[in-house]
Amino acid sequence: IAGEDGEIDLQDFKKALNVKESFFAERFFTLFDSDGSGTITLQELREALTLLIHGNPMDKLKFLFQVYDVDGKGSLGGEGQGRRMCPGAGPHWTSSPLGTGNGSIDPDELRTVLQSCLLYSTWSACPGGAAFQTERQIHKRENAAHWLTAPAARPRPRRPRPLTSAYWHNHRSQLLCLAAYVGLHVLLFALAANAHRALGPSVMVAKGCGQCLNFDCSFIAVLMLRRCLTWLRATWLAQVLPLDQNIQFHQLMGYVVVGLSLVHTVAHVVNFALQAQSDTSPFRFWELLLTTRPGIGWVHGLASPTGVALLLLLLLMFACSSPCVRRSGYFEVFYWTHLSYLAMWLLLILHGPNFWKWLLVPGILFFLEKAFGLTVSRMAALSIVEVNLLPSKVTHLLIKRPPLFHYRPGDYLYLNIPTIARYEWHPFTISSAPEQKDTIWLHIRSQGQWTNRLYEFFKASDPVDCGPKMLSRSLTMRRSQRMPQVSEMSSENHQFCNIKCYIDGPYGTSTRRIFASEHAVLIGAGIGITPFASILQSIIHRHQKRKHICPRCQHSWMDGVQDEDMKLHKVDFIWINRDQRSFEWFVSLLTNLEMEQAAETQEDRFLELHMYMTSALGKNDMKAIGLQMALDLLAKKEKKDSITGLQTRTQPGRPDWSKVFQKVAAEKKGKVQVFFCGSPALAKVLKGHCEQFSFRFFQENF
């Protein structure tokens, strides 16, 4: 950008920082321009950055003070303005006689700076100045503050993750099952190949792969028996088997089936080509491959035609199961092509003489579960009694709870709404507590085709079969007295409905382990809070059940005996959101949690909340220091956070996971287990940190 002259002016400086709001760019430019020439040379920039990186704390504080000491002027420029570096005496700041500051910061100057801070963050001040609300999203910009930090030290070379003890500690059940799976395939292949060694190498390979496919094509369905897996979670096998990774193992077996099928096919093609070339065979190559004339197979010579059909059907299922199909608005393509497993099983029975033996037990279990689930889910239609449209396109559904619907905190169900899509079933976490008897709550983020249609349907002014009766404030108050509110919305976003729906479930997840943990760390990213909302509500109910109040003196105390299935000593709840409005989803729930622990000291509190807003500039960003100081002072004065209204202070930026887990480890409340629901990218980061601290890590996965 500097060009041949090696200097940049103010406009070039703004271009380099890629900023639209010019206040901080102008302030930095003025202070870096030590000779007041209106341009910055490489030498001036190097001297300024050397001071800011290697200078003492007082030098850095003086620089920050000068950024804020603007004398009420929103922009600076002109010859002679700024601060000068003293040549030859080492880097330190001295006041320029032509500088714009007067050595003190008054309220008008502070207001000017805070307004610029707000423009860089996702907040804007309300007229009263006591609260902040999101009005727009600011595009990501290059951050000038990263200039002001020292280069990070290069990390020391570490052993590969699979070779660490922490990795084995977190993945031992998966690795043992994977080793057993590989060993079983080697054994099956060897036995089948050895039995046909007299027929040549190509037949040995084909028969070996075929025997492995007998196991894979029958057992792959067992991994999707959700009711059986939910039942297993209540047994000791949950400590041995990696039940939380059933979908990953299902996908792995799908890849293995495709690979073995291709090898199996190629081996048979080679064998047919050799037979067609020999003088003893009366059949040509294409007859061996595509017709029943050679009589290959145990049912009317159908082995070859069914093999070709199976390979084509398998490749179609494999292509339509890719993430680019499922997550790009074509879920129906994935769903309907995946139903062809019924045709595949029929073709496999005709293709191989022994497959029906392998399928017998898994097939009976599979069809029993499917028949039971279909009967229960379609037995009677349920009513969506109320709908709340929440910020960030989240739909909050209240569904009438069936009488025999028993679930545990963190469970999920499959939902079908014929008005939206007659044949589509989608999984959603139950966000209400099991102790809530009347309704089931679901919070659904609009992220795909079906969820967007759901949101737009209820957003319409006159949806079909839905009477848009607006809730009055008195009705809202009566409802809040009947059950604890989790969502807090204005009345125009409430609707009474009578839409019919069907549910299938409930099904268990890894969150069932939470109450059996000693120290649980719950991490939700965005709408990933929903499984933990159910758990936190259940904690409130259990806490209230143990709490007693003397009717005379109003003294309160807790029963020393906890539930048999609850071993928790401490819960750390971490919620990470992009913007401020997302906190409105469950702010009332979090308020109730704080009120339940209001009488306890910080050290004795059973539950600790941690809130983060990633779109806000962090406290280590020079452009946000003033704003964060103002928010800290305001929170201290009003005893509540200006963003959420909670007592817990919302932290700007992303969590420093090393510090978070160091603090958790230092508390020594028992064995730590981390439960996460959110994006896979963040899950990978958290898993790495958990391995460093030898914490068990569980990810919501269904």
TrEMBL record:
Example GO BP: superoxide anion generation
InterPro entries annotated for this entry?
Answer: EF-hand-dom_pair, EF_Hand_1_Ca_BS, EF_hand_dom, FAD-bd_8, FAD-bd_FR_type, Fe3_Rdtase_TM_dom, Fe_red_NAD-bd_6, FNR_nucleotide-bd
Q: Which keywords, in A-to-Z order, does the entry hold?
A: Calcium, FAD, Flavoprotein, Membrane, Metal-binding, NADP, Oxidoreductase, Transmembrane, Transmembrane helix
Q: Which residues form the EF-hand domain?
A: 20-55
GO terms of molecular function = calcium ion binding; superoxide-generating NAD(P)H oxidase activity
Alphabetized Pfam families for the sequence: EF-hand_1, FAD_binding_8, Ferric_reduct, NAD_binding_6
**What is the name of the protein in this document?**
NADPH oxidase 5
GO cellular component terms, A-Z: NADPH oxidase complex
Among CDD domains, the record links this protein to: EFh, NOX_Duox_like_FAD_NADP
Species per Swiss-Prot/TrEMBL record: Equus asinus asinus
PROSITE patterns xrefs? EF_HAND_1 (PS00018), EF_HAND_2 (PS50222), FAD_FR (PS51384)
FAD-binding FR-type domain boundaries: 377-513
Q: How does it sit in the membrane?
A: Multi-pass membrane protein
Q: Which PANTHER family match?
A: NADPH OXIDASE (PTHR11972), NADPH OXIDASE 5 (PTHR11972:SF58)
Question: Which residue ranges traverse the bilayer?
Answer: 175-193, 213-232, 252-276, 296-321, 333-351
**Gene3D superfamilies in the cross-refs:** EF-hand, Nucleotide-binding domain of ferredoxin-NADP reductase (FNR) module, Translation factors
Report the main location listed first in the record: membrane
